[in-house]
Design a protein that fits this description.
A hairpin with a 7-residue loop joins strand 9 and strand 10. Helix 1 packs across helix 2 and helix 5 runs parallel beside helix 6. With about 300 residues, the chain is an alpha/beta fold. The strands form two sheets. Strands 1-2-3-4-5-6-7-8 form an eight-stranded parallel beta sheet, with no helix packed on it. The protein contains six helices and ten strands. It has a domain of about 25 residues. InterPro entries: LRR_dom_sf.
């Protein structure tokens, strides 16, 4: 019995049970069906998966895209000269999203004659915007990631919308103001000097502008208010009244000024602080600081959704 169990690789008791039966037991498959959480959604998930496969872009099969007339949007994380050559054959390509940390400096997308939207996301090692230089139809450009960036290529474009979440000196932003037809501008993470605010007057068609509301001092936003036209929508409010009430004066909401290191305060407890802000604003703009008397909206993005065109 021991030799049989050892030869078959089973326990001695199991071998004894097999031999004690009048016939040899056969393997019975497990037929009990265990329901899963996603069981009711399998058909829907399968349809969504198949729909995604039909509209996705895969580098492995990029040769099948050559000359395709219905593709309008391409998203890729692998960009090289061969891929650019394929993209240049797409006659209706309008939107290109690139997520690639290392983009070869020799690449250029000027051959994409119909492309209107370009999104460069997580391009941490991008050193210049030469990749989009001289693109004939480019209207909207989104850049996020690089710490140093040469913006000379902006002088070759005629953009309507520009969003840059980068970190580099403001002195290198001269080519920005050559795009006089800009309607939307987002400079998140970029810290221009207050004395440079006057250069925004060159953007005559500007309708919406956004900064990181916690990166600049109060006087910067005061200067920007004096420069920008009243029709320009902005994502900051110089002074807002919060929903939070003062602990010393119940029923009296707190105030908060826009800018770095600005904490909520009570105008009854800290009248000198409000007076200091009012003097600063009046000296820069020539008009008194508007103090909200009722609850105002919080800091936030514009509700018209215009800057989300990069993702549509």
């Amino acid at each position: 019995m021991t030799d049989i169990a050892h030869h078959l690789g089973i326990a001695k008791r199991t071998a004894y049970q097999y031999l004690s039966h009048p016939f040899f037991p056969e393997h019975q498959p497990y037929t009990r069906k265990v329901p899963t959480v996603i069981e009711p959604y399998k058909d829907y998930l399968y349809q969504e998966w198949m729909a995604g496969r039909q509209n996705s872009y895969c580098t492995k099969y990029r040769d099948a895209l050559i000359g395709h007339k219905s593709i309008k949007c391409v998203k890729t994380n692998d960009l090289d000269a061969e891929t650019v050559a394929v993209l240049e054959t797409l006659p209706r390509l309008e939107q290109l999203q690139i997520s690639h940390r290392r983009i070869p400096s020799s690449l250029n997308l000027a051959g994409l004659s119909s492309c209107r939207y370009v999104m460069l996301n997580d391009v941490r090692q991008l050193e210049s915007l030469d990749i989009v230089a001289n693109m004939p139809s480019l209207e909207c450009l989104f850049v996020r990631g690089p710490k140093t960036l040469d913006l000379e290529a902006l002088s070759t474009l005629n953009l309507r919308e520009l969003a840059m979440w980068c970190f580099f000196p403001w002195t290198e932003m001269d080519p920005l103001f050559s795009n006089t037809k800009l309607e939307y501008l987002c400079l998140g993470g970029i810290k221009p000097a207050p004395e440079d605010c006057g250069r925004f007057r060159d953007l005559k068609h500007l309708e919406q502008i956004e900064f990181n509301s916690s990166s600049h001092p109060f006087d910067f936003y005061a200067r920007m208010d004096s420069v920008l036209s009243q029709r320009v929508d902005r994502n900051w409010r110089l002074l807002v009244r919060l929903a939070e009430e003062c602990s010393v004066h119940p029923g009296h909401p707190l105030l908060q000024a826009s800018g770095s290191r600005q904490r909520p305060f009570c105008e009854l407890c800290s009248p000198k602080r409000l007076e200091k802000l009012a003097v600063c604003y009046a000296s820069l703009t020539g008009v008194p600081l508007p103090v909200p008397k009722v609850e105002s909206e919080q800091f936030g993005m514009s509700k018209d959704g215009k800057h989300y065109r990069f993702f549509t």
